[in-house]
């Protein structure tokens, strides 16, 4: 007995079951980039309406699809749920990750186990300066250091003695006529007892070279009384003018300030290094290309700091011997440029070259031993030479310990994961760099005071 012919609607269902799982999308469908195998849909497909949840309201999306009332209600519920899912995915996407999840170019220290930012958009990267991750203290230690040295630069420019403008002294006779010069003379003799046997103020020039010229303006301000008087009280403004003009008269008689450019070159190199380092640690997680650029900028900043740190001691120690001054300055400048060029090689940033990087920068710093020993041989009898050498030895200790900690990755190698947020080697390295740079700033002030007072 033959089987009866199946109904037509069952035959159609079987054909539908045998239909291919994939077919080319219709002409009016939309293609989404970045999906694993390409994803397309037509406007009537409600399964992916959540993609447009940020382009308009849920009602607007559902109405644009020309659905029925019942289907529209289901669409609203689905859009609402999947919209929340998308917002949750955004939050998850910008969460911190662990070391094993990083792309290759971000893997540098396997002992820092977690709290990494990985390929975040630039907006999230910039705002991450105010959040907690394993680069937070790396960013802020050198950013605070940058502002410290910016303040020191402004302070140095304003307070360090400069050449006095003699044209500003043309009005001094009119001011002095209003003041009690006898009282002024007695007050100066009170502060400077050696002036007792001098008949007039014009002999002050013979006495002042025996004094330190560094704080002559402050010395005079402390010596002069709050008010001069001859019968009636002298106006306070007149008193202030007398103080200013008298200091301007005396300062050129005892000092001729030397050039400041080597000292400001060092301050500029320090600020560039600190700002470049802070920027590098903040932005390098954005992309591989930006990481490459930022690391080169960071290496250039380190070389700039080391090179410009030589300028004040070399220039002010050998300013009277141009041959050795130019020799040492030229050598360290060429070495700094060569270091920057070597750091441009892509292989230079690989983790296995960490020790080579530290050794290269450490070698640059150690090359400063030659001019320091030369200075001691020439000026062993000068207390300023010993004072500055003490600062330079302390600076070398800070930098040396910093390079050692950086290369050995102590202490995180002893307890991986314990120092992810605070206390790991790179943060200690940053603090030691700021301490060493500030020590060198103090040495630079001694050099300026020494050469301003004694010259060649």
TrEMBL record:
Membrane topology designation: Multi-pass membrane protein
Chief site of localization: membrane
Transmembrane segments: 137-158, 263-285, 297-315, 327-348, 360-380, 386-407, 428-448
Family: Belongs to the ADIPOR family.
Biased composition regions of type Basic residues, renumbered to the chain: 11-21
Subcellular localization, as worded in the UniProt entry: Membrane
Stretch list, region Disordered: 1-25
Keyword entries, A-Z: Membrane, Transmembrane, Transmembrane helix
InterPro entries in alphabetical order: AdipoR/HlyIII-related
Name of the protein in its database record: Heptahelical transmembrane protein 4-like
